[in-house]
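Problem: given the chain below (445 residues), write out its structure.
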Amino acid sequence: MHATTRLTAPSQGEEPAALATEIIGGPVGRFAAIGRRGWTYVAALLSAAASVLVALDVAQKGHCVEDGWGSPGALWRACYSDLPVAATGSHGGTPWSVGGAGHSQPVLTAMLTWVVQQFTPTGGGLAAQRIYFALGAVIIVLLIALSTVATASMARSTPWLAAHVALSPVLITAALVSFDVLGVALATVGMALWARKQPLAAGVLLGAAVMSRTYPLVIIAAIAMVALRDRAQEALVRMLAGVAAAVVVCLGLAYLLGGDPLDPYRMWWHQAPGYGSLSYLLSVAGHPLPAISASVVAILGWAIAVLLGLYLSGRPAERTQVAPLALTMLVIVLLTGKSMSVQTCVWVLPLLALSAMRWRDHLMWAGAEIAYFVMTWMYIASPTNPAKAMPGAAYSFFVLIRAIAYVGVAWASWESARDLPEDPVEAYSEPAVATGAAAALSSRE
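Solution.
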């Protein structure tokens, strides 16, 4: 498979993409004028297609939409979602009122949860839950579209890579579980602004992403390492100033509203290992790891990720790109973390796209994710019907398979990224001499 064809026309260069296009008429023709309509056309097309994936997720959760999100039905039908649960909270007040999301969610996610709640009827019945779920689905579609457009804008010569964000099968199961895509969208737009040489604005968006989900700290670290390598200290300082400003504003706003935005992080410190983490396997085996010990392991995981990132970004023999570096660091953080929820998969989609991941590798990872998604609910439901539930040993097997899948895509990202003509996120280095796929792509422009 020619690298150039794979990047510019996936239906010609990758068999999974070619097979998928059969439902819309087959692969693009040999003499088609590829790229004539520009990246904005591709971004618009993929954004519209993403809504179909979210609609399939609504269908996947159809049982809960019809009968409610109560346990154990929502578990056995694998249709549980955090979204309708928020509809039961009190209206008015602030996200940090009694029962508000501010006590368990980062600032911006808590605020989004609260805002949507204000548009739902009081009482928290099934009607209110349905309305909250519907509003949440619309917001999530828009956030995925925003992530898709931002990804395509970074890969202007190869915009179809954004299909890894818009058309990933994991959206069918995980997109509507929570508002995690808020952090994904903010982080992706932040990377796009960095790539457009707007470091202050990029920092503001990345800081806002951290206030939605903690994982964008990994992306910030990867960008910083590459910027230091490229001697872009001035741009890096401006970006970090933007990050700091966004964090301070969000924390200050929470305090002004009478809340304590540090509550979720204190709660995390004292929480025992949760579903999906490798440390939780000790709990399944009957030897649970103490909460504080698990917290220490998670912090060590961050330290290992940073040290490995510094080594990889400083190698003189190979010019490390931001996306595979961030993906590798993120996988280390996830596998050493205290929990790894079923919706974690949406975090990595822009990084898969920006690493030019091959669809074969993407689909293998997605298959492991979807299998784990189903098996998790069957395991969680075990107290209601042990004979019907997933045994602990089988659940542990799927946790391990999922971990291997994450290691696999991180490993594959380094090879696939070599096919790119340039780093989509890197913005402050001297252009390299085009060779191989890069030269071929440049000749087509």
